[in-house]
Please model this.
Amino acid sequence: MRILVISQMFPCKRHPTSAIFFANLLKELATKVDGLIVVTPRPYIPKILIKIKKEWAKWYLDSMISKEDGMEIIRPYVFSLRGVQYEGINGILMQLSLFNLCKKLINDKNIEMILGYNMIPEGIAAVGLAKMFKLPVGFWAIGSDVNNFAKYNRINYFFVRKCIKESNIILTESKDLENKIKQLSTKNPNVKTFYKGIDVSNFQYLPSKDALLKRLYLNPEKRYILFVGRLIHDKGIYELAETFNIIARKYSDIDLILIGEEIEKEKIVNKFRNYGQLDRVHFKGIIPYKEVAYYMGISELLVLPTWAEGLPNVVMEAMAIGLPVVATDVGGIPEVLENRMTGLSVPVKNVEKLTEAVIKMIEDKDLRENCIKNAKKLMHDKFNVKTNVLQLYSLLQEVINNHSHQH
Model:
């Protein structure tokens, strides 16, 4: 089996943790197949414009071609337009930009299937290219592509429905997304919920909590609440700010750690400053993947009050490591977070319930221990990437075999 994967999200120097769980899955898949090439497009930005906006230089940090974990990684530049409203069009632009590269790869490497990670734009591009080269095709639907981008405007909606109709298989992060894909389609598509699973090796053999606190320059007299995700309103960051204001006044020894891309940092800083709690909030930005494990190792609990999700990897990772979780009951989260059994779930945008749950998880020792035990068992039994990759291999092989019989 020889697979070509198209994914804009992939670990790189600009963003070392981008789609790290998907990369871990592909690393395992690479050990099972004859060849795996990952094409990870980046937007074309003329170098002269870098002088105007220096942060755009980050798109030039990575080499065009590299080999990592048994995979060939190619990072071509593609034409794209900025903005959610253009994601459908960007799928077509990506398809056109990648045509010559994919033609060469398909001929030289004898590619048998194309996969896109993200329904829009990568799924659109993958389906279009596969149709041109008469190959079977599939894509992953991961969350925001279904919940936000697909129905943002008529153009996105049109291209999404078309790629769903023409794809041989669609893999979703959760049952919730599987149902939403079926609602978007005019026919009964081949949609399957596939849990990528997590690689828990990153969390094994961590230093002691005291050693981690010293390494991270954190006060050992403090306790820490952890948030991991982009700092934007859709992740519930402002509800978290309100909750932490209450928590901070109740517990003088608890601080908040925020890890993730700091998109709305200025507004959030002002929010905490107005509450008088800014000195108890630690902004860490985007950090190496290994360091996320360190922060999980020293935290009291993970809080994720997100508005919409597929199935957040950070929730599963916390559950696997034994870090209690409080999260909203949206998307695929209820599929792993059973209230009072594997964690605590709360309604979306409800500060009162969120605060109650955080306090409950802090104070109720029996609840914490029960959730930790059950969550660890669930992750071990159903969400191990090393065993789940075998299911993925079988699914892809079936698609390839069916396509060859039909042609």
Remarks:
- The radius of gyration is 22 Å.
